[in-house]
Amino acid sequence: MPGRTRRHTQPEESAREYGGPVRIISYNLRKHRAAHELDDLVAGHDPDVLCLQEGDTASLPERAGDLVLAHTTQRNRLGLAIYYRESDFKLVDSATVSVKKSLHDHVLRPAHERLLGVRLRDIDAGRDFLIASLHAAPLTARNALRRDQIRAALAELSELGWGLPQLIVGDFNYPVFKERLSEHMRDVGYELVMSDQHTYTRYRVFRGFYDFAAASGFIVETVRTLPQGESDHLPILVTAHPK
């Protein structure tokens, strides 16, 4: 139905012509508390890319399991990071994106670097694509501000490679009126895909779907919620193919 956010529970037909699926884990570390889980998370689920939110970027390791750190944000109190499998992918470029601050960001410490993107090259397929880690403004902000942040961030992400397949994962902080967000994403060329289970559990009243994938030029097969660790967010594992 137009405007409805898809929720995947079963894989679609795979398209392997570009070297097979890319597996991406997104995880909000809850103010870095779950950072010690990264090695086990990578070993247990074998992702190609790991996208983090709310990490103490100065304390993050250079490697998480067999993945290497591509880049982090620099100016946030708690920032974003992306790791990738260097045996299969080459890091071509990266960029951090600053967006309009919420009231929360003004009152507390600045957190305006809300998106981190990398351009990766599939070594076997010889094709580039973009992966990004997103952390939208907290629930104290209005949904309209989050939509503005996301739109601005995606516009700047495209500067890494105009027309390339793009997959954005992370904490969208958008538990209600998701259909409106889905419509907004479609308007700018992306399909929003929900996970198969709730991804936030800390407060009963706020439980729900917070962590999504947004795809342009990717076929998303599954978005699977992984077991909970010490974070109030559950990790998600996204399996997707460039078209």
Can you walk me through this structure?
The protein is an alpha+beta fold. The protein has a single domain (6-10, 18-242), classed as Deoxyribonuclease I, Chain A, CATH 3.60.10.10. Helix content is 16%, strand content 37%. The protein has helices at residues 38-45, 103-107, 143-157, 178-187, and strands at 6-7, 22-28, 49-55, 63-64, 67-72, 79-84, 89-98, 113-122, 127-135, 166-171, 191-194, 211-216, 218-225, 236-242. The strands form 2 sheets. Strands 1-11-12-10-9-8-7 form a 7-stranded mixed β-sheet. The chain has a 7-stranded mixed β-sheet with strand order 4-5-6-3-2-14-13. The longest helix has 15 residues, at 143-157. The protein is globular, with a radius of gyration of 16 Å. The two termini are 22 Å apart.
What level of helicity do the residues show?
10-25%
The share of residues in extended strands comes to 35-45%
pLDDT averaged over residues: 83
Domains (count) = 1
Distance between the termini: 22 Å
Find the structural class using helix and strand composition. alpha+beta
Q: What is the architecture at the second tier of CATH?
A: 4-Layer Sandwich
Shape assignment = globular
Based on DSSP secondary structure assignment, what is the total number of beta strands?
A: 14
For the largest beta-sheet, the strand count, sense and barrel status come to: 7 strands, mixed
Reading off the top of the CATH hierarchy, the class is best stated as Alpha Beta
| CATH homologous group name | Endonuclease/exonuclease/phosphatase
CATH fold field value: Deoxyribonuclease I, Chain A
- Evaluate the radius of gyration: 16 Å
Q: Give the count of helical stretches.
A: 4
- Low-confidence segments, given as residue ranges, are 1-18, 102-108
Q: Reading side by side through the largest sheet, how are the strands ordered?
A: 1-11-12-10-9-8-7
Order of helices and strands: EEHEEEEEHEEHEHEEEE
